[in-house]
Structure formats: C-alpha cells, structure tokens
Amino acid sequence: MEPPGECENLFDGSAEGYKRGSIRQSPYTDISVERPGWSKLLILAGVSTTVGLSVPVGYNIGVVNTPAEIIKSFCNETVRTRFDTQLSENGLELMWSFIVSVFLVGAAVGSLGGSVLADKIGRKGVVILCTILAAIGAVAFWTTKAINSIELLLAGRILVGLSAGLTTSVVPMYLTELAPLHLRGATGVLCPLGVTIGVLFGQIISLQSVLGTEAFWPHCLAAFVLPVSVSALTLPFLPESPKYLFVIRKQPHVALKQLQKIRDMKEEFLVGEIEDLKLEQQDNELNAGHTWNVLKVLSDKSLLLPLVLVCSLQAGQQLSGINAVFYYSNKIFKEAGLSKSENELATIGTGICNMSMAVLSIFVMSKFNRRICIQISLLTSAFFLILLGIAIIYIKSYSWVPYLSIVGVLGFVLCYGLGLGPIPYFVGSELFEVGPRPSAMALGSMSNWGANFVVGLTFPLMQSTIGASSFFIFAGLVLVLFVLLRFYLPETRGRDVIEIVELCRDGFASKPLRHRENTLQNIDEAKKLDALQNV
Q1: What is the arithmetic mean of pLDDT over 435-449?
Q2: Among 1, 378, 400, 418, fewest CB within 10 Å belongs to which?
Q3: Model confidence at 315: pLDDT above 80
Q4: Is 339 helix (H, G, I), strand (E, B) or coil?
C-alpha cells in the first residue's frame, strides 16, 4: 500500500490527476501492511449468495431429468382432464421440450436485465430480487399438481430462469467487487461452485428413492426453497458493493464506511483501495459521457476485445459439450456393465468429481494465473473429448473400451473444472471497469445461456446423424477458443482493472503479452524515478 503522500501524487482529485496508461500496483504490495483477508462480512456474502442463489441455479438445471417421464404423464393427464383431448407422442415431447427450455429463455432475459438492474437498484438489490423470484417459483412448483396447472409449472420455470440469469450476471460481479485484489479469484469461483453443487443435489433429490416419485415430484422441484429461505435471513446483513456506491452512486462517504466494515480495518489501512476507487471513478467519468448500457458497450470499439473474450468464454463453456457428456455418461456406464442402480450412483459420482474440482478451483484461482489454468483446461478437455468420441465409436468392439470411455468422461469433467468451468463466470469483472461491467457481464451471461439453449436444440440432431462424432465437433470448438485466448487473453490475476483495460483498448490490434512486459518495465522505471526524486 502506498502511503498517503504517494497516493496524492497518483491522484490529485482533478481530471489531470489520472493519466491513461499510468501503472497502478496492488494497494497491498508493502509487506509492512497487513493484507485484508476473509472478513466476517465477506464470508457472509459469499456463503449467502452461493447457498441461496447459485445452488438453486444448478438445482433447477439438474432436477428435471430423472422425473421427466412422471412429469410428462402429469402434463398428459392434465390436458386430457381439462381440455378433453389426448396429446400425441410428438405433442407431448414438444410440450416437455418447451417446459425445459423456457428456463433457458428466462435465464437469457434475466441476464440482460441484470445489466440495467445492477446499476438501478444496486448489486445487493439484485440479490434480493433473485431471492424473491426463486421463492415465488418454488411456490408455483409446489402448487402445480394440487390445482392441475401446467401454466403454473411453466411460470415457475420462467421465474427460476429469470432468477438464474440475474444470478450468473450479477453475483460474480458483486462478490469480486467486495473482495480485495488477492481474493478476487477465490470469490469469483463461488458462483460456479454453487451451480455445480446445485446440479449434484438436483440429481440426488430427483432419484426415485428420494423425491423423484409420482407422489412427491412437486416437492422435488421446489426443494431448493430451503437454501433460499435460509439465505434470505441473511439479506439484511449483506453489504452493498463499495465500488458501486463510490463510482456509480457517487456516495464516497457511504462507500468508505461500507469498505471499512467489509475489510474490518481502519481507514488508514485502506488508503490504497480508496485511491483505486478514485481512479476508477475518474476513468468512468472521463470515458462514459453518459450512462453505460448494453448498446453503448457494444458500440464502444475500445471494449471490443474484452467483450469478445468474455462472450467467447461464456459461450465456449457450454459449446464444450459438458451437458452432452453428462447425457452420454448414462449410456457409457450401462455399456460398462453397470446395473440401473449402479448407473445412477456412477452418474452421481461424476457429479461429485465435478463438484470436487469446483471446490479445488477456489485454491487454484488464488494461487495460479488465469491464462495458465484456462489454457491447460482447454487443451486437456479437447484431448479427453477426442478420446471419448473414439471410445464410444468402438465401445462394442473390445471389452476394455467401455472402461476407456469412463476415463474419457471423468478426465473431461476434471479438466473442465480446472479452468473452463469457473473462469468464464468471473473474468468479466476483471476485464471491465465498474461503468461498463454490468452490461458486459450481462452479455456474457446471455451468451452462456444462449449457447446452452443452442446445444440443447442441436445435440439430439447431431446425436441422431453423426453419433459420437459430435464430440469431435465439441473438441474443435474448444481448440478454437484456446487459440483465441492464447493470443488475446491478458493475465488478470493480481492486476488492477485499469491496467487490464489499457492492454485491451486497441481491439484485436492489442498485444496483451507484449504489453505485460512493457508494464513490468514501466513499473521498474517508475520505481527508479521515485528513488531519484526522493534523493
């Protein structure tokens, strides 16, 4: 952390005080100053949003697969009773596809809504809204069967979809804005961790031996209301983002008080962070001109490269075929000779592997650079996708091939969780300043849900036409993403957002790796200049 005198040299409160391209180091590089850690408020915010919002997102993704036939039967019987008609097999499949996919549509709409609401009602306000939408959706699921209403089932799926979209676009941004620089990666992976845990819980709760039965399926769909309710009790105690209060709401005194509470430190130990907030506010005022929105972000050429990176990462996460791999895992385990009950356990075991990697990613994101993690994740994921495709094609040719396919599934899930799973969710908050950040995060989240929707529509067709060769297409898309990130993704770990923005300002003419070397050189030159001035 720089002492007050040095901070005043970097920022004098006027537009001239901040020069674009100046280098800012971490406010806690002085080893004599204690770095802020996991304070009680930061832990509360992380646990509350993960349990109450992120887990329900994953739960609503994973819960509908096992009881699908039971819910289809309910829909068919409801149509027959209320409208005195019988759905054809194709009609029933179409209705079920609509019920499943309307969640993704709601999530895409919610993602875009997050770009506006994050600045209008605040990050904490969006968290409260997500909780309300999820709770109402759970009530709709609970009452669906009691009043024979398919409309309520659809309404519930739309509401939880809206909540999911808002969650994935705003919660990672909220947590990374609360966290000190060195914990930004650890807090950023909490949202994908919650989603992963939610998918696993959805798979377990929906088993026929638990709640996935004809009598209890409404309770199965609505069970996520329990973590939502527990988390709702903590909402009054959650802090608002100091960056939002300082830069967007222009309430510096309120922001400072909030920052002190979150860090659990006195003001004199937060001078560096306060100066960073001033610099970001200065940059926002100099460049915004007017309020940021999706259209402004899309039309700003200086934001082209980071926007492409965020949207490519978010879409690439789904285009890697992660959902297709989980879909095929049932067939793979069956071919390996597992019984139905063993198959269910193996599928849950795969989910546990996925969750374990999500937990491990908290440590990985804190200790290792983003570029290294994502590149290793992409290359190894592509390798296991190719291995899986080959193994499935020859699965009946040799007795040992089914076991090779299991290696492909588990290998892909583990490598996916190393970087491709967690990084897309929070990297936008590291590439964009506070002003355009909500819109950029919203566009990224919409890309994720949109790609999820596209894969859901096209994978059945790919499966019926080219079969296991589908995985070669997924591997190709993963490798394309690798090439893009290899040349254009700057390292964001431990670096100030303003510096990252400078690296990407020239669009595809930017050279982030070369600039990183220049940045280090500039820091050394700045230190030498300071030393000469102090002599």
Answers
A1: 94
A2: 400
A3: yes
A4: coil
- Which letter does DSSP use for residue 53 in this model? I
CA of 531: how far to CAs of 272, 317, 524, in Å?
20, 47, 11
Distance separating alpha carbons of residues 400 and 394, to the nearest angstrom? 10
Q: Which amino acid is at 385?
A: L
Residue-wise pLDDT for 126-183, tens only, equals 999 999 999 999 999 999 999 999 999 999 999 999 999 999 999 999 999 999 988 9
pLDDT at 446: 95
CA distance 173 to 429: 5
Query: Which region holds residue 360: left if phi is over 0, alpha if psi is between -120 and 50, else beta?
Result: alpha
Phi, psi values for residue 492, rounded to 5°: -110, -15
Whether the pLDDT of residue 97 is over 90: the answer is: no
Measured from the Cβ of residue 496, the count of other Cβ atoms closer than 10 Å reads 19
Tokens 């919002």 belong to residue: 53
Residue 15: exposure state from Cβ atoms within 10 A (0-12, 13-18, ≥19): exposed
Structure confidence by residue, pLDDT tens digits, 366-382: 889 999 999 999 999 99
DSSP-derived secondary structure letter, 468: G
Rounded to 5 degrees, φ, ψ at 40 are -60, -40
Q: What is the structure's pLDDT at 347?
A: 82
Q: Is the pLDDT of residue 10 over 50?
A: no
Alpha-carbon distance of 246 to 405, in angstroms, equals 52
Specify whether the CB–CB gap between 52 and 195 falls below 8 A: no
- Note the pLDDT tens digit of each residue in 195-231: 999 999 998 999 988 999 999 999 999 999 999 999 9
pLDDT band (50, 70, 90) for residue 245:
very high
Instruction: State the fold for domain 37-239.
Output: Growth Hormone; Chain: A; (1.20.1250)
Angle at 71 between CA 67 and CA 72, to 5 degrees: 115
Cα torsion through 318, 322, 323, 324, rounded to 10: 110
Structure-block tokens of residue 74: 């309910």
Locate the domains of the chain by residue range.
37-239, 291-535
| Integer CA distances (angstroms), 337 to 100, 204, 241, 346, 456, in order | 30, 22, 52, 12, 28
What is the pTM (predicted TM-score) of this model?
0.84
Q: Provide DSSP, 229-294.
A: HHHHTTGGGPPPPHHIIIIIS--HHHHHHHHHHHHT--GGG-HHHHHHHHHHHHHHHHHHSS---H
**Residue pLDDT, tens place only, 38-91:** 999 999 999 999 999 999 999 999 899 889 999 999 999 999 999 989 889 889
Q: What is the CA radius of gyration of the chain?
A: 24
Q: Do domains 37-239 and 291-535 have the same CATH topology?
A: yes
Question: Quick one: CA dihedral 28, 32, 38, 41, positive or negative?
Answer: negative
Handedness of CA 262, 267, 270, 272 (dihedral sign): positive
